[in-house]
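Build the 3D complex.
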Amino acid sequence: MKLRHSTTSPYVRKVSVTALELGLDGRIERVPTNTMDPKSDHAADNPLGKVPALITDEGERLYDSPVICEYLDSLADGPGLFPPAGAERWRALRRQALADGILDAAILRMLETRRRPEALRWDGWVRLQSGKIAKALDQLEREAGTLDSSLTIGEIAAGCALGYLDFRFAEDDWRATRPRLAAWYEGFAARPSMQQTVPREPA
Amino acid sequence: MKLRYSPTSPYVRKVAVAALETGLDGRIERIETDVWNPGTDIAEDNPLGKVPALTTDEGMVLCDSPTICDYLDSLHDGARLIPAEGPARWQALNLHALASGVMDAAVARVVEVRARPEDKRFEGWLERQKLKIARALDALDKQAAAGALDGPVNLGTITVGCALGYLDLRFAEDAWREGRPALEAWYQAFSQRPSMQATVPPG
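Done.
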């Protein structure tokens, strides 16, 4: 399999952590991709112009990260990261959606403050996205008691979302009012799959 | 079940079509919600401040459309909207991701114009979204020409239908049908389904 990859994308990190946790990492060849480079050919693999995109051994192109992660899960033996239908599944998918929502808002905020021409930046937009992030983090704090009980795509997505906030918005100090989430993340971030995928700017 | 909805959201429409196609519509109570109203209480159900949000009979809140559709699909005995396994599953989920990308980009265009002060709008952002939409539509036209959108209705084709309906609602002047005859013909037929007719957004 080939994975369209960037070292800063939190959605790519979800896929990488999933692959490591499932023991599939060795089967994935990484294709470094800069989606902001106008000369990049990645739209051939994903018309939406995003990473991650996975090219399977059968030549199918899969996106976005929830689909790729669930596909990888179907290739692995043993108890998976996507529980079958039932309360466990909804909790995992719900948590993934909440964490991906944090990421979507964080990316919009990053684009506003880094990529948009300075004269066109708008504080109202930054506040709107920051408010979504804060409320979703508060929700995760309320749920922190159940974060430890299992490893599913929900906890992986939550870990990658928090890692991205540390990477891009360390000054926000999301831990200050969320001690239980902070304690969970400290343990989760120490997993080898998380340690091997810490985001970094490309060399 | 209770569904927070807005009459024009393409994500809500996807859920509404899925509910009609699976015979679950009668079990869903609807609560109209304007997420742009500063006094909205949507965050009580969805910290990310978005519709749709579904509260199940057990009191669990699911707040993104793919998870809601996955949940609804577990409640009925008919043909699955998300095939259980194998290539059909990945094809349906990938189609869903591609069409969701069209919705995301189209909504981003609407938000850029509606939510931001006029002097803070960025033409480059609008162009980027238009390009994503055009490329995704080209890919969908190829799939339609290859017959990949035919066969039993699934979450992927429902999402394509709702994305195209949203383009007609918001960006009729873009004339997406031009140069995409296979997609146009497919949509012409698909949009006649009772589930699509019953959920046409108010113009």
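The longest helix of chain B spans residues 86-114.
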